[in-house]
Every structure is written in structure tokens, then in C-alpha cells.
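Support reply, case 0932

Customer input (verbatim):
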Amino acid sequence: MSMRQSDPFEQDPVTVGLRFAEIVTGTTISDEPPAPESPLGRLEAFAEEHGSAALTPEHVRAAQEGRPLPPPA
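Our regenerated output:
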């Protein structure tokens, strides 16, 4: 009985797709929560305090630009 030797470079299609998406978008896909000081971390904290319905495109722009988030409307 012969066992197929596993190829160390062979990966499942989902993993290959995720890595390709990271390369194309210049991002990192993670299961970890974002750092609190990151734009996404700041938006998540704002949404937790004020509700996700309070987030607007202006909040996203402010977070991306590193500005303070405007108060909820």
C-alpha cells in the first residue's frame, strides 16, 4: 500500500483565495479583533457605545484620516 506524500506547497483553494485577496488588496485577513487604535478598532468602539446605526460615511473618513470621530447625530 503506497501513501501519497503530501506536497508542502499544496494548499486548499480557500487558503489560496484568501492569500490572493490579501496580496491584491494590500490587507491582512485576521480572526483577531483589530487594534483599538486602528481605524476599524475606533469605529467598532464607537458603534459599541452609540450603536452601529450612528456610524456615517463621515465617521469612516475621519477614522481613515486619523481625525477624531464626530459625535453622533
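We compared this against your earlier run and they match. Two observations from our side: The chain has three helices and no strands. The two ends are 70 Å apart (CA to CA). Please reopen the case if you see a mismatch on your end.
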